[in-house]
Task: inverse folding
């Protein structure tokens, strides 16, 4: 289809992990790319616990030491009765200085030719195929061929294009986190505290960021927040875990935890990151899936914009590639639903069972064997999950 | 503060959970403030129930 020459091939909305990865992939495909960020600087607002798999991150970007606040050698899971489980995996994780990471990606994007505009709110105009009208700020309008909507959990771009539904309270982890100083911790181990009184349907965490410095947070299922808010629970957790520490910074946020990836595409708009609901439904981890979904959205938005793929083919490929990001998603979601239903005694038994599982040398990276193990040992909790999954 | 049919609540956090769960797309975040379009709002209170800070009150929506 012949249309008037657009100002840019691809507009990427949002300069987080997903948006920056999308813009890098799009420009590498040969597209002209404009990235619009709402804040005055890339990396200015970080709503994230900053934990990431070292191996997975390395597969996307060579790791710069400046991004790394702490290297993680293992995890400890605690239940309220003192039961605990240890996972040893030396060097497997990183706690990032995400602002520094995002700034580096921003510089990388610019050096490859991405035009970055900050302090810039984007509103969609006319969604004509092949020439989408967008308004940046108050006075400037542009025409672009395709858009990557990586503008977060409430993606105004995807929602105004009619390709994103609201999240149900049951499908979101509501989170509160503090950066604290003066906490006693093992500097290379993350902590997960499982308890309905600390974080109903979710968990509380301590992610070390250096000596006596950590991200301390709680994430709970959205339906429980009306009883006690995430912020109240965070204060309770800090009082219990590190009463004398100093809170340096607070952040709040929501993490989508949905069964299916949302098919967030239409009219040349491709979603990525939280807008595409790609975070892990059990752990809420979202950095790697944001990068991967951004890469997919950026590449396909560019190839469609450059005329290498029809819109139908680009959308089909997007659906297939996004789906293949996590082929065990149904199992993970069933696990998280079952875990959300556990009472306090069951949580304690769960941690004890997890301890046996980890001691037997099995890996949490294989969801089918994890589920099988727990179905056999805690059938009253996990039996129903297994029923609707072909294991 | 009320201006027309839009209610504004100061909120420095910009976590946008309220906006993400709103079934009517009645909530926008602008310059450190939550803006609720009371004409779109269906008073389901899902934003009040899921706000992690407890910023949103029932009275804000009436």
Result:
């Amino acid at each position: 289809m012949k249309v008037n020459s657009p100002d840019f091939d691809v507009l990427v909305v949002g300069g987080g992990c997903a948006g920056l990865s999308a813009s890098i992939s799009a420009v590498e495909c040969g597209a002209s790319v404009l990235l619009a960020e709402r804040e005055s600087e890339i990396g200015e607002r970080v709503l994230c616990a900053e934990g990431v798999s070292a191996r997975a991150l390395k597969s996307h970007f060579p790791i710069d030491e400046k991004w790394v606040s702490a290297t993680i050698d293992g995890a400890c899971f605690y239940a309220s009765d003192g039961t605990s489980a240890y996972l040893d995996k030396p060097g497997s994780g990183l706690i990032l200085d995400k602002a520094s990471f995002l700034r580096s990606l921003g510089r990388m994007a610019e050096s490859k030719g991405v035009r970055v505009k900050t302090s810039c709110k984007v509103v969609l105009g006319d969604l004509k195929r092949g020439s989408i009208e967008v308004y940046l700020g108050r006075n400037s309008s542009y025409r672009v061929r395709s858009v990557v909507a990586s503008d977060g959990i409430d993606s105004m771009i995807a929602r105004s294009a009619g390709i994103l539904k609201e999240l149900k309270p049951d499908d979101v982890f509501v989170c509160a986190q503090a950066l604290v100083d003066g906490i006693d911790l093992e500097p290379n181990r993350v902590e997960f505290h499982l308890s309905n009184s600390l974080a109903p349907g979710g968990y509380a965490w301590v992610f070390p960021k250096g000596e006596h410095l950590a991200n301390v947070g709680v994430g709970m299922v959205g339906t429980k927040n009306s009883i006690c808010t995430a912020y109240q629970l965070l204060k309770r957790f800090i009082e219990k875990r590190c009463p004398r520490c100093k809170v340096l910074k607070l952040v709040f946020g929501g993490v989508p935890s949905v069964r299916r990836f949302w098919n967030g595409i239409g009219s040349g708009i491709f979603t990525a990151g939280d807008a595409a609901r790609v975070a892990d439904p059990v752990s809420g981890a979202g950095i790697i899936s944001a990068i991967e979904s951004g890469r997919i959205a950026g590449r396909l938005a560019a190839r469609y914009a450059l005329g290498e793929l029809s819109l139908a083919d680009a959308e089909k490929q997007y659906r297939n590639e996004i789906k293949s990001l996590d082929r065990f998603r149904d199992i993970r979601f069933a696990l998280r639903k079952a875990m959300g239903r556990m009472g306090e005694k069951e949580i304690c038994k769960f941690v004890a069972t997890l301890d046996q599982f980890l001691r037997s040398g099995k890996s949490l990276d294989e969801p089918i064997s994890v589920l099988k193990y727990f179905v056999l040992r805690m059938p009253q909790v996990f039996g129903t999950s297994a029923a609707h999954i072909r294991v | 503060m009320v201006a027309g049919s839009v209610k504004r609540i100061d909120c420095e956090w910009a976590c946008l959970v309220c906006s993400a769960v709103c079934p009517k797309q009645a909530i926008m975040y602008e310059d450190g403030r939550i803006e609720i379009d009371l004409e779109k709002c269906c008073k389901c209170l899902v934003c009040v129930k899921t706000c992690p800070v407890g910023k949103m009150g029932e009275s804000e929506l009436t």
About this structure: The mean pLDDT of chain A is 93.
